[in-house]
Amino acid sequence: MLRYLTAGESHGPQLTAIIEGLPANMPVSVEKINHQLWRRQQGFGRGGRMRIETDQVQIGSGVRFGKTLGTPVTLVVDNRDWKNWQQRMAIEGEPPADLEVVTKPRPGHADLAGSLKYNQQDIRNVLERASARNTATLVAIGSVARQLLEEFNIHVYSHIVELGPIKVGPVEGAIEEIAARAEQSQVRVANPEKEEEIIELIKKVRKEGNSLGGIFEVVVTGVPYGLGSYSMPDRKLDSRLAGALMGIQAIKGVEIGLGFDAARRPGSEVHDEIFYSQEQGYYRETNGAGGIEGGISNGQPIVVRAAMKPIPTLYKPLRSVDMETKEAYEASIERSDVCAAPAAAVVGEAIVAWVIALSFLEKFGWDSLEEIRANYNNFMKMVSER
């Protein structure tokens, strides 16, 4: 079964991901992975770390001559900033005498809870792994997943729908057009007027030493019927998507289709009526369900939105307590973004691609690309004849 593990600290030597369960003979492009890593680092409001790191992936196993072998694939992203942290983050030996031990937890981070859970006297042992720097590995594994999906004409897009108090509003056009416009935007919005307003807001918030969150939407096109299952809660496609997106740093809410708005409407304005024609087969004229009914994909585009809280590291520090002295203190400042919601949208794409790929392989098999394609074609033929 398709699964992954990631490892690495924010200022350690490297970030590592291992993917198990990819089918054999699947084309894998390092260039495509690097492009997604580059996209994660873009966006107006990003911090100093993005000027240090230029993420590039190395594949250490599982691929030969550009195609998977069916064995675990290892992905490695080096941390360029490691050279400045070798003594403070040394793998072996004793801590240097002048090591600055972090004892002041920052509100909104894993610092306090993580230190208590793992009995750490130095909060750096917590914050290094909890850091959003580790989303680079999520983007890398998601890029591999989306390369599998593209073999079957399944594509993943994203755009920002809200940033701070500003709603982008309705945007016209197909999702491909909306995403293309968002891709040209510094803040991943498809509305140029709102882009200028958002950029000015980010500038204002930066001067105030504050931060902003936002809501991004991910849309997946080309998804066939039948991914996921109604049989068990953990096999439902919407359950998997919500859980996986909540696993991204700073994500505090997820909705699918109409989401929370469905609770505010009568049923006649929520559920998608079913039609049939010889040319189209079964089809819908609305997509309030966001492409999922009963935990199963229904042939409509998958539509999911996630809310990212404001970055909790502020240049105008919040109050905290020193864990060693118990004295009140203003929380310390690590390098930080003012707004990372556009980057979070790229991470969201990656995670959604991963979940769709997982459910896709469960449905159609996973030993080789050829076997999957045969199963997929047979299923699509059966569906068209029903």
TrEMBL record:
Keywords: Amino-acid biosynthesis, Aromatic amino acid biosynthesis, FAD, Flavoprotein, FMN, Lyase, NADP. Its EC number is 4.2.3.5. Reduced FMN (FMNH(2)). Homotetramer. GO terms for molecular function: chorismate synthase activity. The keyword 4Fe-4S does not apply. Pfam families: Chorismate_synt (PF01264). This reaction introduces a second double bond into the aromatic ring system. It catalyses: 5-O-(1-carboxyvinyl)-3-phosphoshikimate = chorismate + phosphate. This is Chorismate synthase. Pathway: Metabolic intermediate biosynthesis; chorismate biosynthesis; chorismate from D-erythrose 4-phosphate and phosphoenolpyruvate: step 7/7.
